Amino acid sequence: MSDAQQIVTRIAPSPTGYMHIGTARTALFNWLYARARGGRFVLRVEDTDRARSTPEATQAILDGLDWLGLDYDGEAISQFERADRHREVAEQMLAQGHAYKCFSTQEEIAAFREAARAEGRSTLFLSPWRDTPESEHPDAPFAIRLKAPREGTTVIRDRVQGDVTIQNATLDDMILLRSDGTPTYMHAVVVDDHDMGITHVIRGDDHLNNAARQVQIFNAMGWPEPVWAHIPLIHGDDGKKLSKRHGATGVMEYAEMGIPASAMRNYLARLGWSHGDDELFTDEQALEWFDLDGIGKSPSRLDMKKLANVTGWHIARTEDADLVAQINHFLKLTGQSELSQAQQDGLTRAMYCLKDRAKSLPDLLDKGRFVLENRPFDYDEKARAALDPVSRGILKELTAQLQNASWSRDTLEGVLNAAAQSHGLKFGKLAGPLRAALSGRTVSPSVYDMMLVIGRDETLARLDEAASLA
To answer: Name one Pfam family in it (predicted).
Structure first.
């Protein structure tokens, strides 16, 4: 790649009904690499499997990218719709002698492999039609196969894995065009990457063996190879291949858990890539720091505790209004009622006392129930127990004492501490009934924060309601 050439990366998922977390991480790496260098990031949907490639499955990919905030350049490209171009290149390779017609049937190939297994021979199928002259070709359906080199080696110069050498004798002449005229995935990928001007192929290392075959097509066509970077896969916390038993594997499952997209980007970036010892960073820092040299060779492990810590860090640093908007999006995504304007305003006022220890958007909603719910409260069991007759009597006294108090933290602390002392109590003994009265629960933000957020009139109304419980 010349120094002046614009960097172009891509994400090329197959629509399978959801976006896998591994695909999301690959998209993020490609997005970071291109965006930080003034390049382009493009989307190609590899939808040649028509049984699985539904509009809903494609939409799931678009939804995943949208939620993650990974914008792509231009329109999404359908691999299926480019089949004529794939056929054109296969026929060009045939005309140039880089490919040949193979008349071997599926039954013949299967019989060869079965016999080879039985005899302990290699099952690598070497087509007998490779060097057969055109005059001896039958009038029958044929596939077009790549005429791959039989001797020597193919070297993948990989920015993550280093130089990977494959013996050409271990590779067969792969099919470019099936006998029904449909292009194979392996061939289509190369044509698409070339036509889209992809300069860097950053993808999972499960594609490393594919690269050896794809290099041969690039070479046969005289096309420049992209820079290869094959990333180790994501494993579960037990070191085994990631599956449902380890937790969520689809990226939108994390959205439905209430993980903010900024936290997910931070967490995914650290799955397999590092910048010194930095664990927590902003998008701006990720764009500044990300490079292929920081990608490790070992599989990364999904760690939900670490994700919770990353999430807490991002929530604490996000603007209050932005968090409220994210909560509304989360509620809509999970089929719940969105917040009214009054609830949004109240939650925004309360956010300063909700953010510090929250590990998810539902955490914020749970901690903020005191400002989201209206009287009369549905007191939980522990709250009702805290509101015993003695406590209700103290609350009734407090209601009168707070009527004319100035509404500041210092004044409120003075009034509440004095009330506790007058009954021979430490403030902690009064805090439980106060929490119950103000929120309907015994676990909540501090009573002072709740009183300041909801204001004098609402505080007095809640204390009066609690004091009047039968």
So the answer is: Anticodon_2
pLDDT band per the 50, 70, 90 thresholds, residue 145: very high
- Give the amino acid at 183: P
Question: CA triplet 125, 96, 168: central angle to 5 degrees?
Answer: 35
Q: DSSP of 379-394, one letter per residue?
A: --HHHHHHS-HHHHHH
Residue closest to 290 by CA, chosen among 274, 302, 279? 274
Residue identified by tokens 């594997």 is 249
Q: Of 244, 332, 426, 429, which residue is the catalytic one?
A: 244
Q: What is the mean pLDDT of residues 432-460?
A: 95
Buried b (16+ CB within 10 A) or exposed e, 3-19: eeeebbbbbbbbbeebb
pLDDT at 203 exceeding the cut of 80: yes
Task: Report angle CA 169, 170, 171 to the nearest 5 degrees.
Answer: 95
- Cα–Cα distance, 348 to 343 (Å, whole number): 8
Torsion of CA 62, 67, 69, 70, to 10 degrees: -30
Q: Left (φ > 0), alpha (ψ -120 to 50) or beta: where does 60 sit?
A: alpha
- The answer on whether 244 is annotated among ligand-binding residues is yes
Is domain 80-231 in CATH 3.40.50.620, yes or no?
yes
User: Could you say which DSSP state residue 431 is in?
Assistant: H
Q: Which residues share a beta bridge with 143?
A: 102
Architecture of domain 381-467: Orthogonal Bundle (1.10)
Distance CA 177, CA 181 (A): 6
Indicate the SS3 state at residue 33: helix
- Listed in sequence order, the residues at least 6 apart from 22 whose beta carbon sits closer than 8 Å to its beta carbon are 204, 233, 234, 242
DSSP state of 101: E
Answer whether CATH 3.30.565.10 is correct for domain 8-78+234-304.
no
| Single-letter amino acid, residue 326 | Q
Q: For the chain, how many residues are written?
A: 470
Nearest Cα neighbor of 311 from 272, 361, 354, 277 is 361
Q: Would you give the DSSP letter of residue 241?
A: B
Distance CA 298, CA 294 (A): 12
244 is catalytic: yes
Contacts of 74 (CB under 8 A, 6+ apart): 40, 42
Arithmetic mean of pLDDT, 12-16: 89
